[in-house]
Design goal:
The protein is an alpha+beta fold. The chain has two domains: about 5-105, Helix Hairpins (Orthogonal Bundle), CATH 1.10.287.40; about 120-425, Bira Bifunctional Protein, Domain 2 (BirA Bifunctional Protein, domain 2, 2-Layer Sandwich). It is built from twelve helices and 17 strands. The chain has helices at about 5-10, 10-20, 30-65, 65-105, 140-150, 155-160, 170-190, 205-210, 235-240, 295-315, 360-365, 390-400; strands at about 125-130, 150, 165, 195, 200, 225-230, 245, 255-260, 280-290, 320, 335-340, 345-355, 370, 380, 380-390, 410, 425. The strands form five sheets. An eight-stranded mixed β-sheet has the order 1-10-11-12-15-9-8-4. Helix 5 (about 140-150) packs across helix 12. The longest helix is centred in the N-terminal third of the chain and has 37 residues, at about 65-105.
Length: about 425
C-alpha cells in the first residue's frame, strides 16, 4: 500500500507513475475526500478542546455556587457533544473509503525501471548457456511425457477437470527430486532458512501481500470459511512477520519454502491449454527476503542470482529480462523475469519472477524494524522470487534433454535425488 501522506503531497508523481504502468487514473476524488476528512478531524479536535475547557469551567462555577452561569455552559457542552458525534460518524465513513482506495493502487515503479507499455518492451539483461542442438525435430513436453507414461492429463481431468496433471513413475519422482534439490541448494549454499508454512491463509494475509482485494477472482476460496488456498508461498511466508517489529541487526532475513500453489487463472482461458505451463495446481519453491531499505536492491540482485543458480546447476539455457513499467506486477517496484528456453515449443518461458516490493507489502502487513539505539520504527522492504517453479522446470528438462529414441537424460545434479537414475528410458 502506498503511503497516504506521499499520495496526498505528491499526487502528480503518483499519477505519472500510474500512467507509466498503463493506468490513467485521476486522484481528484481521493484528494477531495481526503481534504474533507482532514478538515473534519481538525474541527473535531477544536470541538473536543472547547468541550474540555467548558467542562472545567462548569466544574469551577458549580464549586463557586454559580449554578445559573454553569447551566448556560452545560447547554453549550451538550450542543458540542452532538456536533462531535456527527463529525465522528462523518470521519468513520471516510476511513474505509480512503483505505480501500489506497489498497487498490499498485506500487510505484522504481526509478531504474524502464518505461514501456507491455512485455514487448522488456529489455534482455543477459543470457546464459546455449540452446541444445538436435538432429531431429524436438517435441513439446506433453508429447514426451505422455509417450514416456509419466504425464497423464486425461485421467487428471477425470479426477478433477481441465488444467490438472497426474504425474506417474519417473515423473512423480522427478517432481519430488526437483523440490528437494532446490531446497537443498538454497539452504545449504545460499543461506536461506527453510520453512513449511500452512497452505491455507486468511484474508488478512492475502491483503498483506497484495492479492486482495484486487485479485480475489484469481484465488480459490474455501466455502464457508474466509480462508484461501495459497496462490504462492510468498503469501504465508511474508506474513510470518505480519504486525511484528524486527531488529535491524537481524536483517536481512531469508526464507525458502515449498508449497503447492492454487490459481484459478481467471482471464487466461484459451492460453497454454496443453501441458504443464498454466495449471490450477502446481508446485513451487519460493524465496522470500526481509531487508533494510538501503540494501533491498542489492538483495534483489542476490535473489536473482540465487534463482539463476538452479538453472545453471541443471544446465538449462535461459535469459533474464527486466520488466518495464507496463508489465510490472501489482505490488512490485522492480522485477526480473528468468525465462528458460523450451526447444519443443521454440520459445522462452518465464520460470521465475524476482521482485522488490520496497515497503508496499510491509505497510499493508505492518512489518517494521527498529535500528540499534533507535526509538522509532521503520518499514522493512520485502522481496520474493521463485526458486523455481517446479513444474516448469520439469517442462524444461523434458524438452532440453530429450533424445532421438524418445528417452530423456536426467541432468547430472538431479541424479542423486532420483536414486542414481541417468535417464528415463523410452517405452
Amino acid at each position: 500500500m502506498l503511503d497516504l501522506r506521499f499520495v496526498r503531497e505528491h499526487p502528480e508523481v503518483v499519477e505519472r507513475a500510474l500512467k507509466n504502468r498503463g493506468l490513467d487514473l485521476s486522484l481528484a476524488e481521493f484528494l477531495e475526500k481526503d481534504a474533507a476528512r482532514r478538515a473534519a478531524l481538525t474541527e473535531l479536535e477544536s470541538l473536543r478542546h472547547e468541550r474540555n475547557t467548558l467542562s472545567e469551567e462548569v466544574g469551577r462555577l458549580k464549586k463557586a455556587g454559580q449554578q445559573a452561569e454553569a447551566e448556560g455552559l452545560i447547554r453549550r457542552v451538550k450542543e458540542i457533544n452532538q456536533q462531535i458525534k456527527a463529525l465522528e460518524e462523518k470521519v468513520e465513513a471516510f476511513e474505509p473509503w480512503v483505505r480501500e482506495f489506497l489498497l487498490g493502487l499498485p506500487n510505484l515503479p522504481h526509478d531504474s525501471v524502464p518505461v514501456g507499455a507491455s512485455a514487448d518492451d522488456n529489455p534482455v539483461v543477459h543470457t546464459w548457456g546455449e540452446p541444445p542442438r538436435f538432429d531431429f525435430e524436438p517435441r513439446p513436453h506433453w508429447e514426451i511425457g505422455e509417450a514416456l507414461g509419466i504425464l497423464d492429463f486425461e485421467r487428471a481431468a477425470k479426477i478433477t477437470g481441465s488444467r490438472f496433471a497426474l504425474l506417474k513413475g519417473a515423473g512423480a519422482l522427478m517432481e519430488r527430486a526437483l523440490i528437494n534439490f532446490m531446497l537443498d541448494l538454497h539452504t545449504q549454499k545460499h543461506g536461506y532458512t527453510e520453512v513449511w508454512p500452512p497452505f491455507i491463509t486468511n484474508r488478512a494475509a492475502m491483503i498483506g501481500t497484495g492479492q486482495l482485494p484486487k485479485f480475489e477472482a484469481d484465488l480459490f476460496k474455501l466455502e464457508g470459511w474466509d480462508y484461501f488456498l495459497v496462490p504462492t508461498a510468498e503469501v504465508p511466508v511474508t506474513n510470518i512477520h505480519r504486525e511484528e517489529i524486527l531488529k535491524a541487526e537481524d536483517l536481512p532475513l531469508r526464507y525458502t519454502a515449498y508449497t503447492p500453489c492454487f490459481r484459478s487463472e481467471a482471464g487466461s482461458y484459451g492460453k497454454d491449454v496443453r501441458g504443464l505451463i498454466r495449471q490450477h495446481q502446481f508446485d513451487k519453491v519460493e524465496l522470500v527476503k526481509f531487508s533494510l531499505p538501503e540494501t533491498s536492491f542489492d538483495e534483489l540482485e542476490g535473489l536473482r542470482a540465487d534463482a539463476e543458480a538452479v538453472l545453471r546447476e541443471l544446465g538449462l539455457h535461459y535469459r533474464v529480462v527486466e520488466l518495464c513499467t507496463g508489465d510490472l506486477g501489482f505490488a512490485a517496484a522492480k522485477t526480473y523475469d528468468l525465462e528458460v528456453w523450451l526447444p519443443g515449443q521454440g520459445l522462452y518461458r518465464e520460470i521465475s519472477s524476482c521482485s522488490n516490493f520496497t515497503d508496499y507489502q510491509a505497510r499493508r502487513a505492518a512489518i517494521r524494524f527498529r535500528r540499534p539505539g533507535g526509538h522509532g520504527t521503520e518499514l522493512v522492504h520485502t522481496l520474493n522470487g521463485s526458486g523455481l517453479a517446479v513444474g516448469r522446470t520439469m517442462v524444461a528438462i523434458l524438452e532440453n534433454y530429450q533424445q532421438a529414441d524418445g528417452s530423456v537424460v536426467i541432468p547430472e545434479k538431479l541424479r542423486p535425488y532420483m536414486g542414481g537414475m541417468e535417464r528415463i528410458p523410452a517405452p
